[in-house]
Structures are given as C-alpha cells and as structure tokens.
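User: Can you help me understand a structure? I only have the sequence.
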Amino acid sequence: MLRKVILLALLPTVFGLYFHIAETERKCFIEEIPDETMVIGNYKVQLYDPNTKGYGDYPNIGMHVEVKDPEEKVILSKLYTSEGRFTFTSHTPGEHLICLYSNSSAWFSGAQLRVHLDIQVGEHAQDYEQVAQKDKLNELQLRIRQLLDQMALRRLVDGLKSPWSLAFSGFGAAYGIYYIIDTTQAGTKYEPDFDLKGKTYIVTGATSGIGQATVEELARRNARVIMACRNREKCIQVRRDIVLSTRNKQIFCRQCDLSDFDSIRSFVAKLSQGKFELDRIDGVVNNAATMDDKRKLSKSGIEQMLMTNHMGSFLMTGLLLEKLFKQENPVKIVFLNTNIINRKCDIDFDDLNNDKKEKFDGYEVYKQTKLAQAMFAKELSEKVKDSNVSVILTDPGRTKTSLSNKLNAQDFFLSRWLLKPISFIMGQRRPEKAVKPILYALADPEADGLNGVFIDRERQLQDLGEIVEDKEKREKLWSISLAWTRFHEHLNQLKKEVSGDEGSVEDKPTETKAGGRWYYLWLA
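Assistant: Let's start by predicting it. Here is the structure, written out as tokens:
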C-alpha cells in the first residue's frame, strides 16, 4: 500500500474532466505552477443538440486557449480545432491564468458546449545550475530537488524489489520534502511574544483563511477580538473552536456584510452604543475579500467584488474613524492586499462598475478592486498622518485560502487536489504562516511610526506602484467612493442611531486629535 501511495505522489499528475460553457462564455482559472514545468492539455468540444438532448461532435467549433504567467505575460494564445492538444511550459513560478473560450459564430447563439479536458502536469526540463542560481538553493537543497525530479520516479516505476530500498527512498523523499517546505514556508523566523491583554481588534472576513488565523493569533496573545462576519452561524462555530484552542473567551461575533451598506452602518452603530459598545479599539484588519468569474451586483447596484473589496471597507473604516479619533490610544488600520497590483494593473474610471465590457474577466476585476483598496489606504494614510491613527498595507504572499475557489472553474479543475502539494512545496503558505506580517503591522512595537507603507511577507517595505502613488487618481477615486457609498448620508444616520441627535454632520463637525474637523477630512 505504501508503494502505491508513493507512486501516486511522484507520477506526473493527470486529470480527466468535462465542464459546460455558453458559446460566448470565457472560463478562466488560476493555478500555482512551479517553474520549468510542462503542462499538456488534451481537449474535445461538443455542441448540445436539443433534438437528441445530447452532446455531439461539430468540427466547425474551435477552442481558443490563452495562458498568462504571473507577470501577466501571455505565453500562449492560440485558436485550436474542436479536438486537439495544447502545451506550454512555465518559466516563472507562481499563479498562471488559464482561459478557454469557443470561437462559435453568431448562429450558435444560446448554445451550450461541453468541453472535455485532460491535463498533464509535471514533466520537467530543468537546467539545475540555473535553477540553483535562480532559487538560491544550497547544495543540499539542489540535491533534494534532483532526487525528487530525476531519481525517485524512475526507480519506483522500474520496480523496487527490496523493502529496505523502498523504505530508504521513501525516507529520502520525505526528508527532502520536509526540508524544502521548512525553508520556503517559514521565511524569516518571526515569533512575537508581546502580550495584547486589554487591547481590542476588529477583523473582517474572520471565519476562514487568513482572517481566522489572525483572530487565533490575537486570541493567543490575550487580545479582545471582534469577528466582523457576514454569516453569524458560521462565526459562532469558528469562535467556539478558537476559544477552545486559545482559552480566550474575549472573542465576539458581530454581523457585518461588506456588500450591504446598511449592515455596515448597523455594525458600527452597535460598537458605539448599548451592550456591544467598545471602550477602545486598537486596530482594524480589513481582510475580507471576494472573487468571482461572473458579474454580480450588490443590492446597491455596485459590482460585487468592487463592493466587498473596496467600497465596503471604505464605508466601514470611514464610519469607525470618528470613534477612533476620540480615543487617546494609537490605532492601526491594516489592509490586506497583494503585489499583483503592480503587474500591469490600472483603474478604469470610465467603467469602474464593469458594466460596459463585452466579456467579464473576474481576475482582472479582482485586481482592479484590490488596486482601488490600496489607493484608498494610501490616501487615507495621508489624511490621518497627524492623528493617532496610522494605516499600513500588508501582502501575506501566496496563501492557501478559499479565495480562488470563488472562480467556477475551481469547482471542476482537479489540479487543486493534485497540484496544490507542488504549490505548497514551492512556497504557497498556510494561513498561520501568512498572518505574520499582519501581526507585525498591527501590534509589533517595531512597526510604530509606520504609516502609508506596504509590507511584504518578510515584513520588508515594498513599492506600492505608480498608480497608487498618483495623488490625482487617488483623490478622484476618493470622491467617487464618497458618492457611491453615500457616505455622508450614512454618517448622519449613524449619528442619529447612536445619540438620537437629529442634527446633520455639517451642523456638528467632530474635532480630530490633530485638530482637524471630521467633516472636512472626508470632503477633502
């Protein structure tokens, strides 16, 4: 049995599946692929026949395949026939965007296509001297890489007669995998031991992935944590597990749907009055994000990713700021972002809601919304720089979370079962590892004084990019966000709900710690 398991782990991965698309629909998926890895795809396209109620071959239907590497460079873009094979070799490790769509003409309009797809991943053509130089591998790591790539598979396939030989090979492979995982996963060692007792933090998207890991780490350090969540029932279950594992009961679930402006305002109101009122807030982690391959609208008419990834955090942060300014203690606002905002990414003010494009590209929309969030965070940091509030962006690096599973293709593409172990070895981090830069930005005394900076997974400063640094574009986005979120309307309503004061924001501006007025801060 052990031999079968090892064989399955080392043989090139093969997938067989089919999925359905409309004749004009573009299906994309994101996959972590190691460098110098050959990917072979065998496919067949069939057309649905309403007369037979089945799928049949139709030679005039073709399939266009487009592949982009992690640097957004198109490494494959070709139109194929209704049945055939496509191949490409990765030259940069990381997230590759693979898109498929048909070339069917207008008279197929409304037809449904079935695409059969077999993918083979794992045939390597390695120059190990270049690999060692590029990946900065020492001699032991390079020998392990060569062992895994060149020897283990061949010996097992040829057949090992001796149980001792099999055990030795298994031990060598296991040690090699452990060594590489240990070096790529851990990064620079960071085990902060600060005690956060008496401090309070708000974390959005706290029921899974990095958000949940952030709550757990804060709970272990005795902090009080507010889990801002859309699904309260799920939050209660996750909270129970965290309390049991950390013995910290100061973890609380509060409903906050970032795709619903009313829910956001209600969340802030509950933190400002009544039995849920917080006496202090020491940090806010804007972690919640979503990704989808289909255009969806929130009830406010804003595209769902733009709403959740930017507009929702814009409104929530803005409504919280007045309370934060009144505090004596310093406050950190941390935004989780990604370095993909520096890769051929721009913001389209003429189509910010993505309702003008012929085809909806979920990955491109996701990038634009994260860019918008980064622009907001940078502009906010400029506006609060003389107050008790500071703003930091963090990039946790490639992390194993459920975010990319929002794409429909992830539901059928089986590489997430077989290719993820490879991605894991090549550097994809677990959430408990990815949370380290967030902890640093949020609570480490060494990060005191930082404002408006972007921190990478190793807690080093990285470039925000020319779009984020463009003051004119930031101010334009700020004005649009104010209007789309109806910020002043919600702020007025919040004041009425909290204090019963019928006056408007304009009538009673709030003084900030820097002496500026709250109302004018948000008009600026």
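Now, to help you interpret it: DSSP finds 17 helices and 17 strands in the chain. The domain at 200-396+435-523 is CATH 3.40.50.720 (Rossmann fold). Let me know which part you'd like to focus on.
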